[in-house]
Design a protein that fits this description.
Length: about 240
């Protein structure tokens, strides 16, 4: 009997960077990563061995903290495991995706406002070129950006919804929900399926996403480790 082929969502960063996002990938051996001003995520093969860990260390540089998506392997001697957070992966199971008449497409000119909103709301990593990963939608009030959501990882046939955030002064009005449904509508229009990640401890968000029609696909871990050697001042990819 042949082994089951790996599912794209089992290692979504690697599937993205060797698939639809390959044009963005920086490579060393089998290690692939996004440019550091796009995303801290990198692609780590399922069957990584000593040579892959060495390539990752060479690509990142000495003393650099790097994310380790798609693997629960402990890093080799000389590495320091710096971060472990339990997470969940949720997938579309019949959400009521729909466009939103108030949502506007965000682009490079909106990045300063997007970065400011992210800084105030902390939805997860969002960098100066993250907007290049896919469609980002926002809602404005009085001309100011007060909520947004967009696309991040893009394994074949799937697109991750990410950077879901709302200005604290405008929470409780359903803006984030509307944007999630609008982003999901665009993903569905391409014939793909939405999915997302969140921390397992974020039970409020999980209940909200499940109420929208997402279902738990699997539990996962968000992990990071520091490469061997002395750190360059302030250097981190995580």
């Amino acid at each position: 009997m042949r082994d089951r082929a790996p599912h794209p969502l089992d290692n979504p960063a690697y599937a993205s960077l060797t698939g639809p996002h390959a044009h963005l990938a920086e490579r060393r051996g089998r290690i692939v990563r996004y440019p550091l001003d796009v995303s801290p995520w990198l692609g780590f093969p399922d069957d990584a061995g000593d040579a892959d860990w060495a390539d990752l260390a060479a690509l990142a540089g000495p003393g650099t903290e790097v994310p380790l998506p798609g693997t629960t392997m402990d890093p080799p001697d000389g590495w320091e495991l710096t971060f472990v957070l339990d997470g969940v992966q949720l997938v579309d199971d019949g959400i009521a995706a729909a466009p939103d008449p108030e949502a506007v497409r965000l682009g490079p000119a909106d990045v300063p406002e997007m970065l400011d909103l992210v800084e105030r709301t902390q939805p997860g990593p969002f960098l100066p070129r993250t907007v290049e990963l896919g469609t980002y939608l926002g809602i404005r009030r009085g001309g100011a950006l007060v909520a947004m959501a967009g696309e991040r990882l893009h394994p074949p046939g799937w697109t991750e919804i990410s950077a879901v955030c709302t200005d604290p002064a405008y929470r409780g009005h359903g803006l984030a929900t509307r944007l999630v449904l609008a982003v999901a509508h665009g993903i569905r229009e391409r014939g793909e399926t939405p999915f997302l990640h969140t921390a397992a401890r974020n039970t409020v968000a999980i209940r909200l996403y499940e109420s929208l029609g997402f279902r738990l696909r699997r539990t996962t871990q968000f992990r990071a480790a520091r490469t061997p050697g002395p750190a360059a001042a302030g250097k981190s990819e995580g």
